[in-house]
Amino acid sequence: MVKSSLSQLSCLALLSLSGCFVNTQRLLTPMPADISPLPGGSLEQHPPGPEEVVVMRHADPVQLRPAGSSFGHPMPFYSKQTRANAGAWVFSGHGGRAEILWASGGSALLHGKTTVVVGSPSRGEPAFLLKELERLTLNFGSEGGARLMGGALLEALGGPFVIERRSVELMRIRNRSKVNGTLRFRDAFINLDPGSVVDVPILPMGAEPIPADPDLRDLPGEEFSISVRGAVDVEETPEGTSFTGRGEHEIQGPGLRLQLGLGERALLSGLDKIGQAPSAPAEEPEPVEEPVVVDEDEFSEVEEPEVVEVPEVVDAPEVVDEPEVVDEPEVVEEPEVVEEPEVVEEPETTNTPEEAPEPR
User: Fold this and answer.
1) CA angle 296-301-304, nearest 5°?
2) What is the pLDDT of residue 129?
3) Nearest to residue 87, comparing CAs of 115, 114, 48, 129?
4) Domain boundaries, the chain
5) Backbone torsion region of residue 263, taken as left when φ is above 0, otherwise alpha when ψ lies between -120 and 50, otherwise beta
6) pTM of the model as a whole
7) What is the pLDDT of residues 9-23, one digit of tens each?
Protein backbone atom coordinates (compact mmCIF):
# COMPACT_ATOMS: atom_id res chain seq x y z
CA MET A 1 0.00 0.00 0.00
CA VAL A 2 2.77 2.42 0.91
CA LYS A 3 4.66 1.79 -2.33
CA SER A 4 1.57 2.24 -4.47
CA SER A 5 0.68 5.48 -2.72
CA LEU A 6 4.21 6.79 -3.24
CA SER A 7 4.11 5.95 -6.91
CA GLN A 8 0.75 7.70 -7.30
CA LEU A 9 2.08 10.81 -5.53
CA SER A 10 5.15 10.92 -7.79
CA CYS A 11 2.95 10.64 -10.90
CA LEU A 12 0.73 13.44 -9.65
CA ALA A 13 3.79 15.64 -8.96
CA LEU A 14 5.16 15.05 -12.46
CA LEU A 15 1.81 15.85 -14.05
CA SER A 16 1.51 19.04 -12.03
CA LEU A 17 5.01 20.13 -12.98
CA SER A 18 4.43 19.42 -16.67
CA GLY A 19 1.23 21.45 -16.61
CA CYS A 20 2.86 24.38 -14.84
CA PHE A 21 5.89 24.59 -17.21
CA VAL A 22 6.43 28.17 -18.50
CA ASN A 23 8.97 29.25 -21.12
CA THR A 24 11.23 31.71 -19.31
CA GLN A 25 13.00 32.96 -22.46
CA ARG A 26 12.43 36.71 -22.62
CA LEU A 27 14.25 37.36 -25.91
CA LEU A 28 12.92 36.61 -29.36
CA THR A 29 12.68 33.03 -30.45
CA PRO A 30 15.54 31.66 -32.58
CA MET A 31 15.29 32.84 -36.17
CA PRO A 32 14.82 30.12 -38.75
CA ALA A 33 17.46 29.77 -41.43
CA ASP A 34 16.54 31.30 -44.79
CA ILE A 35 18.61 28.69 -46.62
CA SER A 36 18.53 25.09 -45.58
CA PRO A 37 20.88 23.36 -45.85
CA LEU A 38 23.50 26.06 -45.61
CA PRO A 39 25.88 26.44 -48.56
CA GLY A 40 29.33 24.97 -48.39
CA GLY A 41 32.24 26.92 -46.98
CA SER A 42 35.44 28.05 -48.62
CA LEU A 43 36.91 24.55 -48.38
CA GLU A 44 34.14 23.18 -50.57
CA GLN A 45 34.14 26.16 -52.93
CA HIS A 46 37.89 26.02 -53.56
CA PRO A 47 39.14 22.43 -53.07
CA PRO A 48 42.78 21.57 -53.78
CA GLY A 49 43.72 21.33 -57.43
CA PRO A 50 46.61 19.71 -59.32
CA GLU A 51 48.15 23.00 -60.48
CA GLU A 52 51.12 24.40 -58.57
CA VAL A 53 52.33 28.00 -58.22
CA VAL A 54 55.13 29.86 -56.44
CA VAL A 55 54.19 32.39 -53.74
CA MET A 56 56.76 35.07 -52.83
CA ARG A 57 56.70 37.55 -49.96
CA HIS A 58 58.16 40.96 -50.83
CA ALA A 59 57.01 42.98 -47.80
CA ASP A 60 55.21 42.20 -44.55
CA PRO A 61 52.52 41.34 -43.68
CA VAL A 62 51.77 38.35 -45.95
CA GLN A 63 49.87 35.18 -45.01
CA LEU A 64 49.38 31.93 -46.91
CA ARG A 65 46.48 29.53 -46.42
CA PRO A 66 47.33 26.24 -48.15
CA ALA A 67 44.71 24.46 -50.22
CA GLY A 68 42.46 22.26 -48.08
CA SER A 69 43.39 24.08 -44.85
CA SER A 70 40.98 26.09 -42.70
CA PHE A 71 43.58 28.53 -41.37
CA GLY A 72 46.63 30.39 -42.66
CA HIS A 73 50.08 31.21 -41.36
CA PRO A 74 52.34 34.24 -41.89
CA MET A 75 55.33 33.93 -44.18
CA PRO A 76 58.46 34.85 -42.14
CA PHE A 77 61.45 36.73 -43.44
CA TYR A 78 63.59 33.59 -43.58
CA SER A 79 61.02 31.78 -45.77
CA LYS A 80 60.09 34.30 -48.44
CA GLN A 81 59.26 31.76 -51.14
CA THR A 82 57.13 28.63 -51.09
CA ARG A 83 55.04 26.44 -53.37
CA ALA A 84 51.27 26.12 -53.18
CA ASN A 85 48.58 24.20 -55.04
CA ALA A 86 45.45 25.54 -56.67
CA GLY A 87 42.89 26.45 -54.03
CA ALA A 88 45.41 28.26 -51.81
CA TRP A 89 44.64 31.70 -50.37
CA VAL A 90 47.21 34.51 -50.39
CA PHE A 91 46.58 37.43 -48.01
CA SER A 92 48.41 40.77 -48.13
CA GLY A 93 47.86 43.23 -45.29
CA HIS A 94 48.23 47.01 -45.13
CA GLY A 95 51.68 47.87 -46.45
CA GLY A 96 52.34 44.28 -47.53
CA ARG A 97 53.29 43.02 -50.97
CA ALA A 98 53.15 39.45 -52.30
CA GLU A 99 53.43 37.80 -55.72
CA ILE A 100 51.95 34.65 -57.27
CA LEU A 101 53.93 33.12 -60.17
CA TRP A 102 52.67 30.58 -62.72
CA ALA A 103 54.98 28.34 -64.73
CA SER A 104 53.62 29.74 -68.02
CA GLY A 105 54.67 33.30 -67.14
CA GLY A 106 51.48 34.61 -65.59
CA SER A 107 51.75 36.52 -62.33
CA ALA A 108 49.75 38.53 -59.84
CA LEU A 109 51.37 41.24 -57.68
CA LEU A 110 49.34 42.10 -54.58
CA HIS A 111 49.66 45.56 -53.00
CA GLY A 112 48.18 46.49 -49.63
CA LYS A 113 45.03 44.82 -48.34
CA THR A 114 44.41 42.37 -51.19
CA THR A 115 43.35 38.70 -51.19
CA VAL A 116 43.65 36.30 -54.14
CA VAL A 117 42.74 32.62 -54.43
CA VAL A 118 44.74 30.49 -56.86
CA GLY A 119 42.30 29.05 -59.39
CA SER A 120 42.35 25.67 -61.09
CA PRO A 121 42.09 25.90 -64.90
CA SER A 122 41.59 22.12 -65.05
CA ARG A 123 38.22 22.66 -63.30
CA GLY A 124 37.32 25.49 -65.67
CA GLU A 125 38.31 28.27 -63.24
CA PRO A 126 40.39 31.35 -64.10
CA ALA A 127 43.98 31.53 -62.88
CA PHE A 128 43.22 34.19 -60.23
CA LEU A 129 40.10 34.67 -58.11
CA LEU A 130 40.00 38.12 -56.54
CA LYS A 131 38.37 38.29 -53.08
CA GLU A 132 39.60 41.61 -51.63
CA LEU A 133 41.20 44.50 -53.45
CA GLU A 134 43.34 47.53 -52.80
CA ARG A 135 45.74 47.33 -55.75
CA LEU A 136 46.60 44.42 -58.03
CA THR A 137 48.88 44.05 -61.07
CA LEU A 138 48.12 41.11 -63.40
CA ASN A 139 50.17 39.51 -66.18
CA PHE A 140 48.31 36.75 -67.98
CA GLY A 141 49.82 33.61 -69.46
CA SER A 142 48.24 30.62 -71.10
CA GLU A 143 46.51 29.44 -67.90
CA GLY A 144 43.54 31.83 -68.18
CA GLY A 145 42.18 35.14 -66.93
CA ALA A 146 41.04 36.56 -63.61
CA ARG A 147 37.64 36.70 -61.92
CA LEU A 148 37.23 40.14 -60.37
CA MET A 149 35.18 41.15 -57.36
CA GLY A 150 31.52 40.70 -58.17
CA GLY A 151 32.22 38.01 -60.77
CA ALA A 152 33.30 39.98 -63.86
CA LEU A 153 35.86 38.12 -65.98
CA LEU A 154 39.05 39.77 -67.30
CA GLU A 155 40.97 37.91 -70.03
CA ALA A 156 44.09 38.73 -72.05
CA LEU A 157 47.39 37.29 -73.27
CA GLY A 158 50.02 39.49 -71.66
CA GLY A 159 50.09 42.45 -69.32
CA PRO A 160 50.34 44.35 -67.14
CA PHE A 161 46.76 45.19 -66.18
CA VAL A 162 46.45 47.33 -63.04
CA ILE A 163 43.27 47.07 -60.95
CA GLU A 164 42.65 49.60 -58.17
CA ARG A 165 39.87 50.04 -55.64
CA ARG A 166 38.36 53.51 -56.06
CA SER A 167 35.52 53.27 -53.55
CA VAL A 168 33.33 50.72 -51.84
CA GLU A 169 31.34 50.10 -55.02
CA LEU A 170 33.85 50.96 -57.75
CA MET A 171 37.14 49.64 -59.11
CA ARG A 172 39.29 50.88 -62.00
CA ILE A 173 41.08 48.77 -64.64
CA ARG A 174 44.06 50.19 -66.57
CA ASN A 175 45.55 48.43 -69.58
CA ARG A 176 49.26 49.27 -69.46
CA SER A 177 50.24 46.54 -71.90
CA LYS A 178 50.64 46.45 -75.67
CA VAL A 179 47.93 43.82 -76.17
CA ASN A 180 44.14 43.97 -76.15
CA GLY A 181 42.08 42.62 -73.28
CA THR A 182 38.42 41.74 -72.85
CA LEU A 183 36.10 42.31 -69.91
CA ARG A 184 32.90 40.26 -69.66
CA PHE A 185 30.48 42.07 -67.36
CA ARG A 186 27.07 40.36 -67.24
CA ASP A 187 25.79 40.58 -70.83
CA ALA A 188 28.34 43.24 -71.88
CA PHE A 189 31.54 42.49 -73.77
CA ILE A 190 34.07 45.33 -73.36
CA ASN A 191 37.29 45.60 -75.36
CA LEU A 192 40.29 47.05 -73.49
CA ASP A 193 42.70 48.63 -75.94
CA PRO A 194 46.27 49.49 -74.88
CA GLY A 195 46.16 52.54 -72.62
CA SER A 196 42.42 52.37 -71.98
CA VAL A 197 40.89 52.92 -68.53
CA VAL A 198 37.53 51.46 -67.45
CA ASP A 199 35.64 51.98 -64.18
CA VAL A 200 33.73 48.83 -63.20
CA PRO A 201 31.00 48.84 -60.52
CA ILE A 202 30.93 46.19 -57.81
CA LEU A 203 27.31 45.03 -57.85
CA PRO A 204 25.74 43.30 -54.82
CA MET A 205 23.74 41.07 -57.17
CA GLY A 206 26.92 39.96 -58.93
CA ALA A 207 28.40 40.63 -62.33
CA GLU A 208 29.03 37.11 -63.61
CA PRO A 209 28.94 36.81 -67.41
CA ILE A 210 25.49 35.77 -68.57
CA PRO A 211 25.74 32.84 -71.01
CA ALA A 212 24.35 33.49 -74.44
CA ASP A 213 20.88 32.13 -75.15
CA PRO A 214 20.93 29.88 -78.25
CA ASP A 215 17.35 30.87 -79.08
CA LEU A 216 18.27 34.57 -79.40
CA ARG A 217 18.80 35.89 -82.89
CA ASP A 218 20.67 39.12 -83.43
CA LEU A 219 19.33 41.80 -85.70
CA PRO A 220 21.78 43.58 -88.01
CA GLY A 221 23.00 46.82 -86.51
CA GLU A 222 26.22 48.79 -86.27
CA GLU A 223 26.17 50.46 -82.84
CA PHE A 224 23.00 49.40 -80.98
CA SER A 225 22.52 45.61 -81.11
CA ILE A 226 19.01 44.15 -80.71
CA SER A 227 18.24 40.48 -80.11
CA VAL A 228 14.84 38.82 -80.27
CA ARG A 229 13.50 35.46 -79.16
CA GLY A 230 10.14 33.79 -79.70
CA ALA A 231 7.12 34.72 -81.79
CA VAL A 232 7.63 38.33 -82.82
CA ASP A 233 7.52 40.02 -86.21
CA VAL A 234 10.33 42.44 -87.08
CA GLU A 235 9.93 44.97 -89.86
CA GLU A 236 12.23 47.73 -91.03
CA THR A 237 10.36 50.96 -91.79
CA PRO A 238 11.54 54.46 -92.72
CA GLU A 239 10.68 55.57 -89.19
CA GLY A 240 12.71 52.79 -87.52
CA THR A 241 12.43 49.13 -86.50
CA SER A 242 8.90 47.85 -85.81
CA PHE A 243 8.12 44.88 -83.55
CA THR A 244 4.73 43.13 -83.38
CA GLY A 245 3.96 40.51 -80.75
CA ARG A 246 2.58 37.17 -81.99
CA GLY A 247 2.96 35.07 -78.85
CA GLU A 248 5.51 34.40 -76.13
CA HIS A 249 8.66 36.34 -76.95
CA GLU A 250 11.29 38.77 -75.61
CA ILE A 251 13.22 41.67 -77.14
CA GLN A 252 16.65 42.36 -75.62
CA GLY A 253 19.24 45.08 -75.98
CA PRO A 254 21.65 47.12 -73.83
CA GLY A 255 19.36 48.31 -71.03
CA LEU A 256 16.27 46.93 -72.78
CA ARG A 257 13.92 44.05 -71.89
CA LEU A 258 10.65 44.22 -73.80
CA GLN A 259 7.67 41.89 -74.02
CA LEU A 260 4.57 42.76 -76.05
CA GLY A 261 1.07 41.44 -75.88
CA LEU A 262 -0.64 39.66 -78.72
CA GLY A 263 -0.97 42.13 -81.60
CA GLU A 264 0.80 44.95 -79.77
CA ARG A 265 3.31 46.97 -81.75
CA ALA A 266 6.46 48.85 -80.68
CA LEU A 267 8.65 51.16 -82.76
CA LEU A 268 12.34 51.80 -82.02
CA SER A 269 13.69 54.76 -83.96
CA GLY A 270 17.03 56.53 -84.10
CA LEU A 271 19.08 53.38 -83.54
CA ASP A 272 21.39 54.21 -86.44
CA LYS A 273 22.38 57.51 -84.79
CA ILE A 274 23.49 55.98 -81.48
CA GLY A 275 27.23 56.26 -81.00
CA GLN A 276 27.65 59.05 -83.54
CA ALA A 277 29.10 62.35 -82.47
CA PRO A 278 26.52 65.14 -82.52
CA SER A 279 26.94 67.49 -85.42
CA ALA A 280 28.09 70.97 -84.60
CA PRO A 281 25.33 73.58 -84.84
CA ALA A 282 25.49 75.71 -87.94
CA GLU A 283 26.77 79.17 -87.24
CA GLU A 284 24.29 81.85 -88.12
CA PRO A 285 25.70 84.56 -90.40
CA GLU A 286 26.12 87.92 -88.82
CA PRO A 287 23.42 90.38 -89.92
CA VAL A 288 24.69 92.93 -92.42
CA GLU A 289 23.48 96.45 -91.94
CA GLU A 290 21.86 97.90 -95.04
CA PRO A 291 23.35 101.20 -96.27
CA VAL A 292 21.27 104.30 -95.70
CA VAL A 293 19.89 105.78 -98.92
CA VAL A 294 20.17 109.59 -99.00
CA ASP A 295 18.06 111.61 -101.43
CA GLU A 296 19.96 113.83 -103.81
CA ASP A 297 17.70 116.79 -102.95
CA GLU A 298 18.46 116.52 -99.30
CA PHE A 299 22.16 116.15 -100.07
CA SER A 300 22.11 119.29 -102.23
CA GLU A 301 20.44 121.35 -99.53
CA VAL A 302 23.10 120.55 -96.98
CA GLU A 303 25.49 123.46 -96.64
CA GLU A 304 29.13 122.69 -96.86
CA PRO A 305 30.94 123.33 -93.62
CA GLU A 306 33.25 126.34 -93.45
CA VAL A 307 36.91 125.64 -93.72
CA VAL A 308 38.64 126.87 -90.62
CA GLU A 309 42.25 127.86 -91.09
CA VAL A 310 44.61 126.16 -88.83
CA PRO A 311 46.76 128.69 -86.93
CA GLU A 312 50.46 128.54 -87.49
CA VAL A 313 52.44 126.90 -84.86
CA VAL A 314 54.91 129.36 -83.30
CA ASP A 315 58.15 127.90 -82.25
CA ALA A 316 58.70 128.19 -78.57
CA PRO A 317 61.68 130.39 -77.59
CA GLU A 318 64.81 128.63 -76.73
CA VAL A 319 65.59 128.35 -73.08
CA VAL A 320 68.99 129.86 -72.26
CA ASP A 321 70.82 128.19 -69.51
CA GLU A 322 71.56 130.50 -66.62
CA PRO A 323 75.29 130.97 -65.85
CA GLU A 324 76.57 129.21 -62.91
CA VAL A 325 77.03 131.38 -59.79
CA VAL A 326 80.67 131.49 -58.72
CA ASP A 327 81.21 131.76 -55.01
CA GLU A 328 83.05 134.93 -53.98
CA PRO A 329 86.43 134.35 -52.33
CA GLU A 330 86.55 134.81 -48.65
CA VAL A 331 88.27 138.05 -47.39
CA VAL A 332 91.19 137.24 -45.15
CA GLU A 333 91.81 139.88 -42.49
CA GLU A 334 95.36 141.25 -42.32
CA PRO A 335 97.10 140.84 -38.98
CA GLU A 336 97.53 143.95 -36.84
CA VAL A 337 100.98 145.54 -36.87
CA VAL A 338 102.45 145.75 -33.40
CA GLU A 339 104.61 148.84 -32.83
CA GLU A 340 108.06 148.14 -31.61
CA PRO A 341 108.94 149.81 -28.24
CA GLU A 342 111.29 152.78 -28.30
CA VAL A 343 114.80 152.27 -26.92
CA VAL A 344 115.66 154.90 -24.26
CA GLU A 345 119.32 155.64 -23.91
CA GLU A 346 120.59 155.74 -20.37
CA PRO A 347 122.68 158.85 -19.42
CA GLU A 348 126.39 158.42 -18.77
CA THR A 349 127.50 158.78 -15.18
CA THR A 350 130.68 160.97 -14.52
CA ASN A 351 132.49 161.56 -11.19
CA THR A 352 132.68 165.22 -10.30
CA PRO A 353 134.95 166.60 -7.56
CA GLU A 354 131.98 167.83 -5.67
CA GLU A 355 130.50 164.49 -5.44
CA ALA A 356 133.80 162.89 -4.44
CA PRO A 357 133.57 160.95 -1.28
CA GLU A 358 134.89 162.48 1.83
CA PRO A 359 137.99 161.02 3.34
CA ARG A 360 137.74 159.29 6.65
Assistant:
1) 110
2) 94
3) 48
4) 46-201, 217-270
5) left
6) 0.57
7) 565 555 555 555 566
